């Protein structure tokens, strides 16, 4: 009985761990891509200043598109999930390194990323695990390690992870539009003055 519970726990955690690994690899690669490059004008103008003037629908729309692409991995054997998780990690790493290279302090970067990023990253990882779970089930079925390709547990996991990820992504978008932009304005004002 314990081995069955342990296998089920491992089976449920595996997509989550795979999602974390893919996102982390993208993030650390993004940190390394910018080394030795001056991104001060790019970061100040493109990453924050121009985003300040976009209306508040930009963040929910952008985040929802990313989340849907992650969830579509269930129907593309995980390809959209892996690509999008990696790309999101890469963009975050690139942005963090660019901000640091531009003269922003570590504290300022954390203040810009942490309020919405904690929800956004969690939402992306949950959506990624949902997008990986179904293809993993199909692969295990093809390897004859399962009796059916997609079972009720897989669908429950997918729907729960998808719903939670959408909730986290919407919370992140609201925080990004209302809190992070104000923090960015204050930081840019301090750097300009």
List the helices and strands and how they pair.
Blueprint: H1 2-33, H2 40-49, H3 58-71, H4 79-101, H5 106-142, H6 152-192
Structural class: mainly alpha
Would you report the number of β strands? Answer: 0
**Coarse shape:** elongated
Q: Describe the main β-sheet briefly.
A: none
* Mean pLDDT across residues: 83
Our estimate of the beta-strand percent is: under 5%
Q: What radius of gyration results from the CA coordinates?
A: 19 Å
| Count of separate structural domains | 1
Bin the helical content.
over 70%
What can you tell me about this protein's structure?
This protein is mainly α and 193 residues long. The chain has helices spanning 2-33, 40-49, 58-71, 79-101, 106-142, 152-192. It has one domain (2-192). The N and C termini lie far apart (66 Å).
Keywords:
193 residues; mainly alpha; 6 helices
Short structural description:
This protein has 193 residues and is mostly helical. It has helices at 2-33, 40-49, 58-71, 79-101, 106-142, 152-192. It has one domain (2-192).
């Amino acid at each position: 009985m314990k081995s069955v519970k342990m296998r089920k726990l491992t089976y449920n955690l595996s997509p989550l761990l795979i999602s974390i690994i893919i996102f982390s690899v993208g993030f650390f690669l993004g940190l390394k891509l910018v080394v030795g490059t001056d991104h001060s004008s790019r970061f100040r103008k493109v990453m924050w200043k121009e985003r300040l003037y976009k209306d508040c629908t930009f963040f929910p729309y952008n985040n929802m598109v990313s989340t849907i692409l992650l969830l579509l991995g269930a129907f593309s054997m995980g390809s959209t999930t892996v690509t999008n998780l990696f790309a999101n990690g890469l963009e975050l790493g690139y942005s963090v390194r660019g901000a640091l290279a531009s003269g922003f302090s570590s504290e300022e970067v954390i203040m810009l990323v942490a309020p919405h990023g904690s929800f956004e990253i969690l939402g992306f990882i949950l959506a990624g695990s949902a997008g990986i779970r179904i293809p993993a089930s199909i692969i295990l079925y093809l390897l004859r390690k399962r009796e059916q390709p997609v079972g009720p547990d897989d669908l429950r996991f997918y729907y729960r992870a998808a719903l939670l990820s959408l909730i986290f992504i919407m919370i992140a978008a609201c925080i990004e539009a209302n809190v992070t932009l104000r923090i960015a304005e204050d930081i840019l004002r301090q750097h300009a003055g």
